[in-house]
UniProtKB/TrEMBL annotation:
GO terms for molecular function: electron transfer activity; heme binding; metal ion binding. InterPro entries: C-typ_cyt_methanol_metab-rel, Cyt_c-like_dom, Cyt_c-like_dom_sf. Residues 151-175 are annotated as: Disordered. Pfam families: Cytochrome_CBB3. The lineage of its organism: Bacteria, Pseudomonadati, Pseudomonadota, Alphaproteobacteria, Hyphomicrobiales. Residues 65-128 form the Cytochrome c domain. Gene3D superfamilies: Cytochrome c-like domain (1.10.760.10). The keyword Chaperone does not apply. SUPFAM superfamilies: Cytochrome c (SSF46626). This is C-type cytochrome, methanol metabolism-related. Residues 1-25 form the signal peptide.
């Protein structure tokens, strides 16, 4: 888990200051499929964090944590379950064409768009530990929503919090 967080931080440092990045081809359930697990966190074939749902409907801890964090800090602008609002995009749709590095960059650095005479501003959350320490969780949750891997609403069952998640949280939050 510490390694995954270190990779996330490294990705932020290496991304362009503008917050722009190359979007990948449309994400699908097949591309987002979990193929590897490390300390309770799942990854796709390309090594990107992803969600995992057991046959009984139990979501992995990081998906559940992402749901909680999203509804704590993001839903006010982006709507419940990533469905959007009158002034912020539907992340459940946007994430279909956004790669992991671009997501990290936008959340950390913010972004300003001017389209059709309307200015949209995504504030930077790189200094907000309640967001920054859980960016992978947010990405995993929104990725699951974007490919209809999980329905709207609170996941009914969740895996236990792995020790690696506890350790990373304590390290990042300064506890």
């Amino acid at each position: 888990m510490f390694f995954a967080k270190a990779v996330s931080v490294l990705a932020l440092v290496c991304l362009p200051i503008s917050g722009a990045g190359l979007a990948h081809a449309q994400d699908t359930k097949e591309k987002a499929a979990a193929v590897k697990e490390e300390d309770g966190k799942w990854f796709d074939a390309d090594g990107n964090p992803t969600y995992n749902i057991k046959d009984d409907g139990t979501v992995d801890w990081y998906t559940f944590s992402g749901y909680r964090r999203y509804h704590s800090d993001c839903h006010v602008c982006h709507g419940p379950d990533g469905v959007g609002s009158s002034y912020a995009p539907a992340l459940a749709a946007t994430m279909k064409n956004m790669d992991y590095g671009t997501f990290l960059s936008i959340v950390a650095e913010g972004r300003k768009n001017l389209s059709a005479g309307k200015e949209n501003v995504m504030p930077a959350f790189g200094d907000n530990k309640n967001v920054y320490c859980y960016m992978d969780d947010l990405y995993i949750y929104l990725r699951a929503r974007s490919v209809d891997g999980i329905p709207r609403g609170r996941p009914p069952k969740k895996a236990d919090k792995p020790q690696a998640a506890k350790d990373a949280e304590a390290s990042c939050m300064g506890g």
